[in-house]
Amino acid sequence: MTPALPPPPATGKRTPRDPHGADERVTCLALAARSGDAEAVDRFIRALHHDVRRYVAFLSPDPQAADDLTQDTFLRALGSLHRFEGRSSARTWLLSIARRTVVDSLRHAAARPRLADRHDWQSAAEQSQPRGLPGFDDGIALADLLAAVPAERREAFVLTQLLGLRYAEAAAVTGTPVGTVRSRVARARSALVELLREAEAPAARPSGTGHGGTGGAPRPVPEAATAA
Predict the structure, then answer these.
(1) Which residue ranges make up each domain of the chain?
(2) 18-109+116-128 against 130-201+220-228: fold identical
(3) 130-201+220-228 topology per CATH
(4) Residue 173 has what pLDDT?
(5) Using a CB cutoff of 8 Å and minimum separation of 24, what contacts does 7-16 make?
(6) What is the largest CA-CA distance in the chain?
(7) Which tops the pLDDT comparison, 20 or 192?
(8) Distances from the Cα of 219 to the Cα of 131, 147, 161, 223, angstroms
(9) So what CATH class is 18-109+116-128?
(10) Is the distance from CB of 169 to CB of 96 less than 8 angstroms?
(11) Distance (Å, rounded) from C-alpha 9 to C-alpha 173?
């Protein structure tokens, strides 16, 4: 049996991540871990555990598989860490491995497909997000909206808008041109805006009946769905 990877540290409030500084620090940790520094290995895993789990939770249709896929990702990464030379950020490199891990898992399960329970998937995806995301306050779960977006567009949106990768980094992870990533993000954003409007629209009423006028002003769309 492979040893369980250390879980991420239990912290109360997540502080905003500086994409440039944090990526540089994690890349330095990966390079140190490559040389056999056990402490660097532990810090490298802890630094990226949340992002990897969040990413695979959106990619995999099986909510029960997120933890296993996360562990498999790190086991693969540690096994090939000696080949990492820092030409890309360690986070981009690791998310590429996470993507291949999910794809391999889906291929392996193709001979015996199983439908995932929608409610369980939604719960798992929501739990992988910070509860402070705009939309939760209004009872609208971003994960639920994303579930209705085509997979390729959803992945591009998650990588750039939720995990904070640059478009070029997301293109490296998914193996697609930068222009394709931009197009998928734009289409996903448009779909999310439309889905949110539908979700927050008042229930249709029979013509000629009114209960207190025409209703209030529309609520703003979630920031994560409209951010560039």
Answers:
(1) 18-109+116-128, 130-201+220-228
(2) no
(3) Arc Repressor Mutant, subunit A (1.10.10)
(4) 93
(5) 7/49, 8/46, 8/49, 8/50, 9/46, 14/130
(6) 75
(7) 192
(8) 19, 21, 21, 12
(9) mainly alpha
(10) no
(11) 26
